Amino acid sequence: MAQELSGYRRALDLFERRVADVPPDGWDAPSPCAGWTALEVAGHVIGGQHLVLALATGEPEPDVTADPARFCAGDPLTAWRAARKECAAALTPAALRRPIPFGALGDLPLGDYLGGYILEPLVHTWDLARATGQPARLDPDLVHHAFATAQVVAAALRGDGRLGTALRPPRGADEQTRLLAFLGRTA
């Protein structure tokens, strides 16, 4: 499973670098996620680590969209690192084989789910970067993988209001710009 999780870990590393580089006065900045500040974007992704932990352990899943800032009370980087460490410790071989429900696709092993989960921290890395004036260029390999995942899950996410309408990317746009447009974001 280590190889299968390498993209997941790289996406988390990229997010961590953006969290670490948010200036102290940048957390209140509006983000590309309608109605959310940079802090709320960070809290949502930190909450995502709590969600993965719950999936790994069979505990109830937290709602990571309601008041996401609650996941990063105090210092967001410290909260991120603590949540990531706790989640990583729970990703044992047995946990990675654990079947979890994945909508119309049925049950998937958690390890397979995490392969597609790259989309979540990756796009929010971009959101956080844009909100706080940081470089927003993402890893092209992760973008490629995330775009494939987005095409599988977008209809369900749009159906329940968790994803905006796809936008038309500019002619000749690179894959990152096309992914962002597909997710309703203007690069």
Describe this structure in words.
A two-stranded antiparallel sheet has the order 1-2. The mean pLDDT is 92. A hairpin with a 5-residue loop joins strand 1 and strand 2 (107-109). The chain has a domain at 6-133: Four Helix Bundle (Hemerythrin (Met), subunit A). The protein is mostly helical and 187 residues long. It has helices at 6-20, 38-57, 76-90, 93-97, 110-117, 119-132, 140-159, 175-182, and strands spanning 99-101, 107-109. 56% of the residues lie in helices and 3% in strands.
Briefly, what is this?
The protein is 56% helix and 3% strand. With 187 residues, it is mostly helical.
Q: How would you describe this structure in keywords?
A:
56% helix, mainly alpha, 187 residues, two-stranded antiparallel ribbon, 8 helices, single chain, Four Helix Bundle (Hemerythrin (Met), subunit A), 2 strands
Q: What is the molecular shape? A: globular
The secondary-structure class comes to mainly alpha
Helix-residue proportion: 55-70%
Order of helices and strands: HHHHEEHHHH
Q: What is the count of DSSP helices, taking H or I runs of 4+ residues?
A: 8
Task: Characterize the quaternary organization of these chains.
Answer: single chain
CATH class of the domain at 6-133: Mainly Alpha
Largest sheet geometry: 2 strands, antiparallel
And the CATH topology of the domain at 6-133? Four Helix Bundle (Hemerythrin (Met), subunit A)
Strand order of the largest sheet: 1-2
CATH superfamily of the domain at 6-133: dinb family like domain
> Could you give the distance between the termini?
33 Å
Q: Give the averaged pLDDT, no decimals.
A: 92
Q: What low-confidence regions span 5 or more consecutive residues with pLDDT below 50?
A: none
Annotation, overall tally of beta strands: 2
